[in-house]
Amino acid sequence: MPDPAAAARAAKLRARIEDANHRYYVLDDPSIPDAEYDALMRELEALEAEHPELASDDSPTRTVGTRPDGGFPEVRHAIPMLSLANAFETAGVPEDADDRTRYAEVADFERRIEQRLGVSAPVFSVEPKLDGLAISLRYEDGVFVQGATRGDGASGENVTANLRQVRAVPLKLRIGKSPPPAVLEVRGEIYMPRKAFADWNANALERNEKLLANPRNGAAGSLRQLDPAVTRRRPLAFFAYGVGEVVGLELPDTHSQTLQLLRGFGFPVASEVDTAVGLDGLLAYFRRIGELRDTLPYDIDGVVYKLDDYDQQREMGFVSRAPRWALAHKFPAQEQATVLRAIEVQVGRTGAITPVARLEPVQVAGVTVTNATLHNADQIARLDVREGDTVIVRRAGDVIPEIVRVIEERRTVGAAPWTMPSQCPVCGSQLVREEGAAAWRCSGGLACAAQRKEAARHFASRRAMDIEGLGDRQAEALVEFGFVHSPADLYALTVEDLVRMKAALDAATAADLAEAVADSRGALLLDPRGQALLADDAYEWKNAAFLRRHLAVDLSGKLATRWAENLVAAIAASKATTLPRFLFALGIPHLGETTAKSLAQWLGSLDFIRSTPAVLLQALPDIGAEVGRSIATFFEQPGNAAVVDALLAAGIVFADESPPSAALRERLGLAHLLEALPVDKLGGKSAERLADIYVTLDALLRANASGWTGAGLSSAGAENLAAYLADVEALADLRAADVAMRRLLDAAPAQAARAQGPLDGKSVVLTGTLDSMTRDEAGERLEALGARVAGSVSKKTHLVVAGENAGSKLAKAQELGIETWDEAQLLAFLAKHA
Ligand code: I6G
């Protein structure tokens, strides 16, 4: 009489295992981590061993995988594809346990073989166990005729067409002149190499596509594509590990020799395949491969031990679904389930926002994981991961742990979808997302503590404020050691501050050096000032305290003081600058040097640039919607505004400020404001008509929808406009834009200033390498003659100057019929207008 409680538990376990099998083998969408699956299987095995009356032939403990689901024709395997018995580290063993206790299951496996065969320390063939998809390749008369998945072991799916697309699968055996075997079935694993998997996902992330959960899933999903062309594009590889049916070929006596034979036939076999003797040999191999695991180019989940001698294999035979002569010894799992406590966002040094998962601590592949990356907001939406969810975390090699899927069945009621916070967690500035981009970023570039180093480095750099003597490392160190919080603090630095900073920087460098010395006994090293230290000196230098003392003495001396005095002078000199340099130095996303120059030419002064709303900036050439929004958002952040004010208060002055360009009159007006509104059925023509009739925004607003239709706007357009203006904030923005626009137009001269140079109003592009000067220098000289130097060639380009090795820009200019000059023509022109 079966024990009812045991029977009920067995039924529950079988249902869960069968569901997991279906999700894993058929849908390529595993529901639970491997470790959890293994635990369920072991519990069922133990239950069936204790209650033999519960065992049945269709129990998942007696079958392999799952039956094919009908997507591909079925193939019966001539010789069943079995599975392997698994061995894990004994649960809860103390730290100092000996090998026989820690690896009791492996020890039992080896002992059973010794006892049954009456031999001591038998020889095993040993190999890494790839985390891929088991397949069988059938060759008839040396030609690949059929490829199948393992399926339930008795029959699998016919995926021949797809396997033909995998470059590592030979289409013919390499057998030279000898006659091919009538039949040879080769068994092995299809897998996706780690790098290919990472590249694939990096690309998918960029293209906003679904990520592959792990290389195994990637391999399985790729092989089960209905269109072989899709499989062809997937980076799949193959390793052979054994044979099935063989006719017309005498196999060697051992498995390791068979693997050699397969290599000779043209099949890839893992280079880590080896032989090992007795239990000690097996465990030594397990440890060796365990140490290599993170550096291997493919994912493995353990190693496989097989008795090497085929006679001995035959003598051992099989038990239920697995051979008694082989064992899979599993490593700690790379995927584990845990609870996601919270999703927080981190701010990178350039302001990019990365969502990070805070997890209930969990052991993954031998390491405690508490945080995992979620990549970006799109990935969170794709996974539909919510705070409180049970998630599967994966850690493979040295990559950052990531969340690969959610166990939706375990979601608690009421868990809400996650949304991106609106403000930066570090500085409180607005988080913005560029159109079409996956990444969000913090708009508080100058004021955000997370971005301080980058802001200081960029501000001081050659193309920005060009502060001589303040290199990247020193600019960052000023922030690191607390001397500078924003670029404005640079202007308050004293010689003493800089000497102290340099001492701190060199002490840190010295500590790094001391560590390097300790790590590389006897190697040739450089000291912090670049002098070579020979091996013997290096030993003297390995004491960090000695190094710190040595450098501190040196740096409080003349060298450091002279450096600091020069730097203070260079910082002071940088106060007299140009408006484009200053704008570029602020590090506004999308504001490059060309845009900075254009902005300065059109709006003339910082005062106008910082107060012009996005809708007006967009009307300027070279500044599209995205750049306009980026500039306006930057100046709207109170933190950024405070730093800009502090910079001006520190005495920054511009030699080149002027009134706004007279040409603004052609670009700005009521029609432009209306056209830029996100209002359906209010296009350019209707906007112009309304502007002609009402002239001012106030007049337009005093009228109503029926007035607007009378003025020629369609009734749908009028209705949409009325609905838009009913929003108080939208109306306030429009009024503010109108005020800003009128201020600009009032300040702009009525007529353009007289032409300044022979290239006035001309757009010039420089490409290729010039001999006599850099492209920057050439650009500056052309600008001095009135040209606007642009980065890309378009129909609006007037002239392209092409140096050596000019490429696509020159070709495009020729295609568009644009005038092109070589370097000699450029020099002649510059000489004439010098
Ligand atoms: O060497 C092997 C590696 C992986 C195997 C194997 C395997 O399954 C994924 N399965 C069997 C049945 C055998 N060797 C004999």
Question: Which class do the helix and strand fractions yield?
Answer: alpha+beta
**Number of E strands:** 28
Number of domains: 6
Shape: elongated
Which architecture of the largest domain does the CATH hierarchy give at level 2?
A: 2-Layer Sandwich
In terms of quaternary structure, the protein is: single chain
Bound ions, cofactors and other small molecules, one mention each? 8-methoxy-2,3-dimethylquinoxalin-5-ol
- Give the percentage of residues in beta strands: 15-25%
Question: How many separate helices?
Answer: 34
Q: Roughly how many Å is the radius of gyration? A: 36 Å
Pick out the low-confidence regions: 520-556
**Major sheet attributes:** 7 strands, antiparallel
Report helical residue fraction. Answer: 40-55%
At the third CATH level, what is the topology name of the largest domain? Answer: D-amino Acid Aminotransferase, Chain A, domain 1
Mean pLDDT: 88
Task: Report how far apart the termini are.
Answer: 108 Å
CATH superfamily of the largest domain: DNA ligase/mRNA capping enzyme
* The level-1 CATH class of the largest domain: Alpha Beta
